[in-house]
């Protein structure tokens, strides 16, 4: 400790606010931590690897014949739908893991550091985009194996994938909020799925909307998930960046604008 | 606003309420810059809660506090630039290695990638963790974790360091190492505010001590003042010849002016020791009387005695322990053994004789 010399408190130049540049820097440092954690605990990736494979197989062969007449005809409809559903579902895990993480002592240290308050949260969420990328890639690969040939070409598929990942990141703020306010990790999962199921199943992800009763049709059409599914279909199948894509991005921005401040505030209040 | 450099911490009437439990109920603390301040108390006394409020981890429900003149409520971000916090349980990331932890915290403290690496290597070396740098933290011993935890607190070289029970649960050897580390820290000019359940720890390290119980400071002062308020230590003599006991008792009565207690079977004599200086006189008298002393020891007042004297109840019989992280595996009275611990002057560890002053 001989090398240390302490600058007295009164002689330091200090500021009571955090700049945006520092916020971004802190968040990326936290994201780097998240990536190391993912690398250390690869078993946490089971859901994002197994779920796309099983769900895609299951839904394609169960519903394919009934809904679209054949598996081949169903794939262009289903793959974008199942993609959105899978990736949004895996974003629930973000909230659950955040809850578990916050119960550990290291979050105390994060709070005691002169860093942006949002950084530990934003970093964790940012690192989880890796999970969404894995789920997205696997879903498209599964579709390809089963015979899905996206009409939009590879470029459009990549754009569609990025759109899904961005929107899921936004939605994960909702689950992060549950993660911060919930008492236990198990209850986060409970609340989250309660929100998630109506949102993903009451959409155009699996079935054509016109087969639904009028009341449901109304909900499905306003459901932001439907817009995202449509946007992905338009992109992957015909390389069109439609108004649904813009609506999805707008919806994502609104979710972040509401839930990020709510989450940070709840996080700061929590002891 | 006054930027005081004299006081590292000034707290007035801090209050924190959890439900209907007033965990901290009006705590006043003044910690002078460059000193070690010990907050002594049993589990659930409100030590951790107080530290968490001062470290901006918890918002106080009442009262005021400043760190180097900066209000903990209005200027939390400034306070955070001036402090380092080391918790009871290692607050480092268990899934990361030691190096990864230090690099992360260095980066968060604004160091560049290269500087962060350099700083981590430096700190690992300083805390004797270089060999374990890449090992998973799950395989770290309790002492190694504490050291890493402390290392992480020192990255920004904060002028004020909070140590929340730095040695709870450590074995005696590791504990002594931790004490050395803390002493070296103070030598660099840091101010340290530490909490502890152990009287001897506060005694060893702290310049001033506040005894806290049920959320209230019940006594404050130097270790000496504190002990004087509690009652004196007692002197224990074992004579080579038990037959000389009665003569020794007379000598004690003459020189110290107090009545000694005899234990004839063991050839021992115990006397309250209010004035350590007169011990020399007693020893000279014993020598001139031809009474050979085989063992000389001083019994410290234990934490139990301190608490009993200050609060009227024993340490740890407070059932409303609210701070869950405060639960140490050894229980509240682990440091304060119920039986007195004599320290022989001829034994391998002698510093306590000196501490009896």
Automatic annotation (TrEMBL), chain A:
Domain of life where this protein originates: Bacteria
Membrane topology: Multi-pass membrane protein
Segments forming domain ABC transmembrane type-2: 43-270
UniProt-listed PROSITE patterns: ABC_TM2
Coiled-coil segments on the chain, per record: none
Family of this protein: Belongs to the ABC-2 integral membrane protein family.
Name of this chain's protein: Transport permease protein
Lineage of origin: Bacteria, Bacillati, Actinomycetota, Actinomycetes, Micrococcales
TrEMBL record, chain B:
Record has ATP-binding as a keyword: yes
Ranges of biased composition (kind: Polar residues): 335-349
Occurrences of domain ABC transporter (ranges): 9-239
GO molecular function, one term: ATP binding
UniProt topology in membrane: Peripheral membrane protein
Gene3D superfamilies, alphabetized: P-loop containing nucleotide triphosphate hydrolases
UniProt xrefs under Pfam families: ABC_tran (PF00005), DrrA1-3_C (PF13732)
Sections of the chain in a coiled coil: none
Biased composition (Acidic residues): 317-329
Keyword Translocase recorded: yes
Residue numbers spanned by region Disordered: 313-357
Keywords: Antibiotic resistance, ATP-binding, Cell membrane, Membrane, Nucleotide-binding, Translocase, Transport
Subcellular location: Cell membrane
Family membership: Belongs to the ABC transporter superfamily. Drug exporter-1 (DrugE1) (TC 3.A.1.105) family.
Listed PANTHER family: ABC TRANSPORTER ATP-BINDING PROTEIN (PTHR42711), DOXORUBICIN RESISTANCE ATP-BINDING PROTEIN DRRA (PTHR42711:SF19)
NCBIfam families: drrA
UniProt-recorded name of the protein: ATP-binding cassette domain-containing protein
Species for this entry: Herbiconiux gentiana
């Amino acid at each position: 400790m001989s090398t240390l010399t302490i600058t007295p408190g009164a002689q330091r130049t200090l500021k009571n606010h955090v700049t945006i540049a520092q916020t971004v820097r802190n968040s990326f440092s936290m994201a780097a931590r998240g990536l190391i954690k993912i690398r250390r605990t690869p078993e946490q990736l089971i859901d994002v690897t197994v779920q796309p494979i099983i769900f895609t197989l299951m839904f394609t062969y169960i519903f394919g014949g009934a809904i679209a007449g054949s598996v081949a005809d169903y794939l262009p409809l289903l793959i974008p739908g199942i993609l959105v559903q899978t990736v949004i579902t895996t974003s629930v895990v973000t909230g659950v893991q955040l809850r578990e993480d916050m119960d550990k002592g290291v979050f105390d240290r994060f709070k005691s550091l002169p860093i942006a308050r949002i950084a530990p949260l934003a970093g964790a969420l940012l690192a989880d985009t890796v999970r969404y990328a894995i789920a997205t890639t696997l879903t498209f690969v599964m579709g390809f194996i089963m015979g899905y040939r996206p009409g939009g070409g590879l470029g459009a598929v990549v754009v569609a994938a990025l759109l899904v990942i961005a929107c899921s990141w936004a939605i994960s703020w909702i689950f992060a909020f549950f993660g911060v306010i919930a008492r236990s990790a198990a209850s986060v999962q409970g609340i989250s799925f309660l929100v998630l199921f109506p949102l993903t199943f009451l959409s155009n992800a699996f079935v054509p909307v016109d087969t639904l009763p009028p009341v449901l049709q109304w909900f499905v059409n306003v459901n932001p998930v439907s817009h995202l599914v449509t946007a992905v279909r338009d992109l992957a199948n015909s390389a069109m960046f439609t108004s649904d894509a813009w609506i999805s991005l707008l919806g994502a921005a609104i979710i972040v604008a509401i839930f990020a401040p709510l989450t940070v505030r709840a996080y700061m209040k929590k002891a | 606003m006054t930027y005081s450099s004299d006081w590292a911490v000034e707290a007035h009437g801090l209050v924190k309420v959890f439900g209907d439990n007033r965990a901290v109920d009006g705590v006043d603390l003044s910690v002078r810059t460059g000193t070690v301040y010990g907050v002594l108390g049993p589990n659930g006394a409100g030590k951790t809660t107080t530290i968490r409020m001062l470290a901006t981890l918890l918002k106080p429900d009442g009262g005021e506090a400043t760190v180097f003149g900066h209000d903990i409520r209005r200027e939390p971000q400034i306070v955070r630039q001036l402090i380092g916090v080391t918790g009871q349980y290692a607050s480092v990331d268990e899934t990361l290695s030691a190096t990864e932890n230090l690099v992360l915290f260095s980066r968060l403290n604004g160091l560049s990638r290269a500087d962060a690496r350099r700083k981590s290597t430096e700190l690992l070396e300083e805390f004797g963790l270089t060999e374990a740098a890449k090992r998973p933290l799950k395989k770290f011993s309790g002492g190694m974790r504490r050291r890493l935890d402390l290392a992480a607190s020192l990255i920004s070289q904060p002028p004020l360091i909070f140590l929340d029970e730095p040695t709870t649960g450590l074995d005696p050897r590791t504990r002594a190492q931790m004490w050395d580390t803390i002493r070296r820290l103070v030598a660099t000019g840091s101010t340290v505010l530490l909490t502890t359940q152990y009287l001897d720890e506060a005694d060893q390290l702290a310049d001033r001590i506040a005894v806290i119980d049920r959320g209230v400071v019940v006594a404050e002062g130097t270790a000496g003042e504190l002990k004087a308020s509690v009652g004196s230590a007692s002197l224990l003599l074992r004579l080579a010849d038990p037959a000389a006991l009665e003569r020794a008792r007379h000598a004690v009565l003459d020189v110290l002016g107090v009545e000694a207690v005899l234990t004839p079977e063991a050839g021992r004599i115990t006397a309250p020791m209010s004035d350590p200086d007169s011990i020399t006189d007693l020893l000279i008298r014993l020598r001139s009387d031809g009474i050979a002393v085989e063992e000389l020891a001083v019994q410290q007042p234990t934490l139990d005695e301190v608490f009993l004297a200050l609060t009227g109840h024993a340490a740890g019989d407070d059932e409303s322990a609210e701070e869950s992280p405060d639960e140490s595996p050894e229980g509240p009275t682990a440091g304060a053994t119920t039986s007195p611990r004599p320290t022989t002057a001829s034994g391998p560890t002698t510093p306590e004789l000196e501490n009896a002053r």
